[in-house]
């Protein structure tokens, strides 16, 4: 009457798997986070193949990832000194980001950001400043309230030499009148 149901016989592959349980292999570790590249700007770029000495003026964003000496005046624009940037210059711009080395004064109408790889030697003046862990600042920092005070005019090379010329002319006139 009652019949016991027959269970299917396990195949040899199933019995072998039961005899040797599968060894779990760990998944490979996730790669270490990659540091973000320098801030990409839609404007001009100075890269490592260049070395600039002189004065840069304009109103377009600029990425400096090369050696530069002189003066940078970009009203209403952003200046980024990339991680390979080695700058000896005064910079006057709307926004400034330092990821490399800079020696000189920084005057920003809006903000200055010194990244963890950034190093500055000189005075900083801006409405806002952000300094990340690991950044180096050697110099004074002035946080201003209004735009006019945050962006004083940095004299050009010719303007900076004008008072010296006037003084030399005045001393020459005195020597001439005394003789």
Question: Main traits of this protein?
Answer:
179 residues; twelve-stranded parallel sheet; 3 helices
Secondary structure elements and their pairing?
Elements: H1 12-19, E1 44-46, E2 52-58, E3 62-64, E4 67-81, E5 86-98, E6 101-103, E7 106-114, E8 119-121, E9 124-126, E10 128-131, E11 136-138, E12 141-143, H2 147-150, H3 157-178
Parallel strand pairs: 1-3, 2-4, 3-4, 4-5, 5-6, 5-7, 6-8, 7-9, 7-10, 8-11, 9-12
Care to give the gist of this entry?
Helix content is 19%, strand content 39%.
Element string (H = helix, E = strand): HEEEEEEEEEEEEHH
The count of helical stretches stands at 3
The low-confidence runs, each spanning 5 or more residues with pLDDT under 50, are none
Given helix and strand content, the structural type is: alpha/beta
Distance between termini?
145 Å
Largest sheet: 12 strands, parallel
The radius of gyration computed from the alpha-carbon positions, rounded to a whole number of angstroms, is 32 Å
Proportion of residues in extended strands = 35-45%
């Amino acid at each position: 009457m009652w019949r016991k149901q027959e269970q299917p016989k396990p195949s040899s592959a199933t019995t072998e798997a039961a005899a040797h349980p599968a060894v779990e292999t760990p998944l490979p570790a996730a790669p270490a986070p990659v540091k973000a590249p320098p801030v990409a700007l839609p404007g001009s770029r100075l890269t490592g193949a260049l070395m600039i000495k002189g004065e840069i003026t304009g109103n377009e964003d600029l990425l400096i990832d090369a050696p530069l000496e002189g003066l940078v005046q970009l009203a209403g624009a952003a200046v980024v000194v990339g991680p390979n940037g080695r700058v000896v210059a005064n910079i006057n711009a709307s926004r400034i980001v330092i990821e490399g080395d800079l020696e000189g004064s920084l005057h920003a109408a809006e903000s200055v950001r010194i990244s963890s790889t950034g190093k500055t030697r000189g005075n900083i003046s801006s409405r806002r400043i952000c300094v990340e862990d690991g950044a180096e600042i050697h110099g004074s920092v002035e946080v201003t309230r209004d735009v006019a005070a945050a962006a004083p005019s940095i004299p050009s090379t010719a303007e900076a030499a004008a008072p010296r010329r006037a003084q030399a002319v005045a001393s020459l006139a005195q020597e001439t009148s005394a003789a």
